[in-house]
Structure formats: C-alpha cells, structure tokens
Amino acid sequence: MNTPAAPNTFASGGLDRRSDTRRDATWVAAQWARPGARVLTMRAGDPAMDGGRLALAPVSPASPGSDGPLPLPGGRDGTPLFLGFDATGPVFAVEAREDGPGAFADLRSVAGALTPAEASMAATARALFGWHARHGFCPNCGAPTGVTDAGWKRSCPSCGADHFPRTDPVVIMLALHGARCLLGRNASWPEGRYSALAGFLEPGESVEDACARELKEESGLTAVRVRYHSSQPWPLSPLGGQLMIGLFAEVEDDQAEADGRELSDVRWLTRRDASAALAGTHPEVTAPPAMAIAHQLIRAWLEE
Ligand SMILES: [Zn+2]
C-alpha cells in the first residue's frame, strides 16, 4: 500500500468521531453545552461558508437544541448531528431549510480549497444527512424509524431493527500495460474528459473481483495483477456516500475496446501524454481535477 503524498480530498480529516461515546445521549448533550462547541450548517448538501472557510459557528441560544436537553440528534428537523472533535473542540452539524438564509457554497466547487479537516466535516455531514433523507422508513418492516446515537443510527420502534449509515464501495482503477495507462471516456462527460475506469462492487465480490469484472466489461481487458493505492470518501454522487477504492491493474495485453455502453472511448496514454493531460496541456485529453482520486492515481503512476 502506498500512502499518497497528500491525502485525497475528503480523506484523513483527523476528526475524532468518538464512536464509542456518542451513543450516550447525556454525553452528547454535555458536548453541545460546552463553551467551545461549534456547529456547521448544511443546506441541500452544501456547507455554510465564511470568507472562504467553512463557517463553524459557536453553538448559541439560537442554535437548534441548545435550550434544555438535547433533542434526538441527526434528524431532518434541524436537530444536530455530532461530527466529532477537531483540534479545537466538539463540532456538530445541522441542516438548514432549502429556502433558508445564509451563504452556502457548492461543495464540489470549494472542496479542493478546504483544509482536510474542513473537507472531511462537510463530506461527513453531507453523506449522513443524505442517508437520513432516504432512510426514514425501516427497510425491514416499513415503519417510520427514529434517530439515535447522535445521528449515527436509525432504529425501528416496530420491529427493533437498527440501521447504520451506508457507504457504497466503488473500485476505480488505472489499467497499466508496459509504459502506458488506460483512460476511458463516458459519452456524457464534457468533450475531451477522460478518467480511470470505475464501477460499484457487487454483493459477493472482492475488490479484486470487481476490478477485474469492470475492466473486462468496459474495455475487454484482462487484469493480471491488482494493487491497492489509496481510497477516498466521495460524498458528491446523487445517491450519497461512496468510498472510492483506488487501484492499479496490470493487464494481459493492450487490446482495449470501449464497451459502447458505459464508455464511448478508451485510449492508452504514454507517460508524456498523461503528464500533459494532468497539466491541462494535452490537445485532446483532459484529466480529472486534483480533487478526484483518478487524478491522484495518474500522478502516482507517473511518479513510480
Ligand atoms: Zn422495522
């Protein structure tokens, strides 16, 4: 395993989530009442910003849940979600109404300029609020569920089932053959945009299995050796929290062909081509931005 020179955007924010103690509602209420407690407001998945930084406001009497005992946290009604401790103290997140006031920034646009801690807080809040929005009813029996564990669990009062926030694993791989790497192009992307191939893991698959299957399906290539590079929480997809698992896949031969379904084109890039694509100087190929793990995979391969 290689550790990237810089953490992938949204990864390694250093938050201490206190997953052992956040189940205790009394402890959580005490953190909310601490003088240094701060709260991040999210609106439709986007964070409140202040002067280019994440707006972490002191918990005030106007903040939801600050008078009296802490209400059930993490709900969709403005009650807080406990994110964890940063270097300063406890941090919570709340959701603003979609038409609420305030300065919010598109997370995709600002993420690359946030500190790792800020990006991690915003990603975590976005993924969790998105999960709550889609899991109001018990998948086991259909009854409405309630929020517990400071926003990190939903429990069903009818059948007793507990439900935990989902993270969907996605493999993303840079296929390598000789001194070239393979990038693919989805027809819906902006002209010239190419990226590493990717796909969701299916039940019953290992990471290596999914990598081999996706490579075969999308490009016809056969993986012979799969190496892990790094991973990245990815909160920006429409369906919420994904984990991108970044891989290098050495392949048997270079007979690649786009499947014509997910990919409209695939092409091999020499190191010189790939370097130009990252730098934005390639005449035909634009690489993903630095905040995407595909960019970091290409960069790491160039530096090998
Ligand atoms: Zn149930």
Give a summary of the structure in a few sentences:
The protein is globular. The protein is 21% helix and 29% strand.
Notes on the protein architecture:
With 304 residues, this protein is an alpha+beta fold. It folds into 2 domains: 25-136, Nucleoside Triphosphate Pyrophosphohydrolase; 168-303, Nucleoside Triphosphate Pyrophosphohydrolase (Alpha-Beta Complex). The protein is 21% helix and 29% strand. The protein is built from 6 helices and 16 strands. It has helices spanning 25-32, 107-110, 116-134, 207-219, 271-279, 293-303, and strands at residues 38-43, 46-47, 49-50, 53-54, 56-58, 81-85, 90-95, 146-148, 153-155, 162-163, 168-177, 180-185, 197-200, 223-237, 240-251, 265-270. Strands 11, 12, 13, 14, 15 and 16 form a 6-stranded mixed beta sheet that branches. Strands 1, 2, 5, 6 and 7 form a 5-stranded mixed beta sheet that branches. β8 (146-148) and β9 form a beta hairpin. The longest helix has 19 residues, at 116-134. It is globular. The protein starts with 24 loop residues before the first helix and ends with a helix. Mean pLDDT is 90; it is low at 65-76. Zinc ion (ZN) is lined by residues 138, 140-141, 143, 156, 158-159, 161.
Count helical runs: 6
CATH class of the largest domain: Alpha Beta
Q: Ends: how far apart?
A: 13 Å
Report the uncertain regions: 65-76
Question: Percent of residues in helical segments?
Answer: 10-25%
- Beta content comes to 25-35%
User: What coarse outline follows from CA principal-axis ratios?
Assistant: globular
Largest sheet: 6 strands, mixed
Bound ligand species: zinc ion
CATH architecture of the largest domain: Alpha-Beta Complex
CATH superfamily of the largest domain: Nucleoside Triphosphate Pyrophosphohydrolase
The tally of strands reads 16
* Domain module count: 2
Give me the CATH fold name of the largest domain.
Nucleoside Triphosphate Pyrophosphohydrolase
Q: Output the structural class.
A: alpha+beta
Order of helices and strands: HEEEEEEEHHEEEEEEHEEEHH
Question: Which radius of gyration do the C-alpha atoms yield?
Answer: 21 Å
Task: Give the overall average pLDDT.
Answer: 90
